[in-house]
Design a protein that fits this description.
- It contains six helices and 15 strands.
- It is an alpha+beta fold.
- The protein has three domains: about 1-45; about 60-155, OB fold (Dihydrolipoamide Acetyltransferase, E2P) (Beta Barrel); about 175-325, Nucleic acid-binding proteins (OB fold (Dihydrolipoamide Acetyltransferase, E2P), Beta Barrel), CATH 2.40.50.
- Strands 1-3-4-6-5 form a five-stranded mixed barrel.
- Strand 14 and strand 15 (about 300-310) form a beta hairpin.
- It binds zinc ion (ZN).
- The site of zinc ion has 7 residues, from loops.
Amino acid sequence: MVEEIIQKIVEETELSEEEVKEQVNSKEEEFKGLVSEEGAAHLVAKEHGVKIVKDVDKDLKIESIVPGMSKANVKAKIVDITDINTFENSDGEEGKVRNLVLGDETGTLRMSLWNEQTEVADKLDKEDVIEINNAYTREDNRGNTELRIGSNTKIKRIDEEIEEVKKESGRGGYKETRIEEIEDENKYLEVEGEVVQIYTNSPFYRKCPDCNNTLRKDDDYKCKEHGDVEPIYKIALPMILDNGFKNIRCIVFNETAKKVLGAENIDFAGDLEKIKMYAEESKGKRVKVKGRTQYNDFFDTIEIVVNELDVRQTEELLEQKIEEMKSV
Ligand SMILES: [Zn+2]
């Protein structure tokens, strides 16, 4: 483990292996007898802002499962099993994806099953309690943690009870809130406001059609598993919602982004000019969004990762105005 931590620090900083080892040794010296070598390595990592996600053998509660884990063990109840969604991969073959929603008393988590993995769900039912060993985690498009099956992952049904599942989101789980009342991260809220700005500097990101991995510029947009592929262009648009009192940064993705843009049937396919045009035309729309608040380190503010969105129609707004006038 110490070696792994040292490697991680070397990878993420300008330091050489020798320099890291020296720093670990001097930390150990400094806290003589108080910290182990591993403890010292963790301290050094922390000083350089390198995040070490600990692989733990014991079962985790869902709330403590975060992106980037290479080994996660969890016992949870199956809250939902989605239907299979199919898509065409770059070889023209059919790909499949299916989700299990898992829950325990601390929260819920999505587990995605790809291709032949989808068969796992055939043997399971809602309300089953399962034990998962050696799964790994990723961050999904919306910033949520997603559990995934690797080659060493084991899943089995167990004879244990999980009585109460804490539901944080889902239909009806969004609390109607005014923008100026928003304070905390990780809240599921519904807010309304006018779209005053849409940022289109970099509205697209690319996904591998076969495995859904994000294709990064650093890798020349090649998939680590599938090499050169015809990418699927996904949309992520930051926008500013204003209610006349305060504004908040929101991020809309794909279908919800197209809804704001009034481009439900448009395939932008990476066309920057086209999406800029739609964005320009969409300013001033009044929308209602449902989503999760998160802290944005870069801007040092709370923002909303949007899950659902409705554009308020003019007639609807007029009716509301009339109702308001009647009640005065
Ligand atoms: Zn791929």
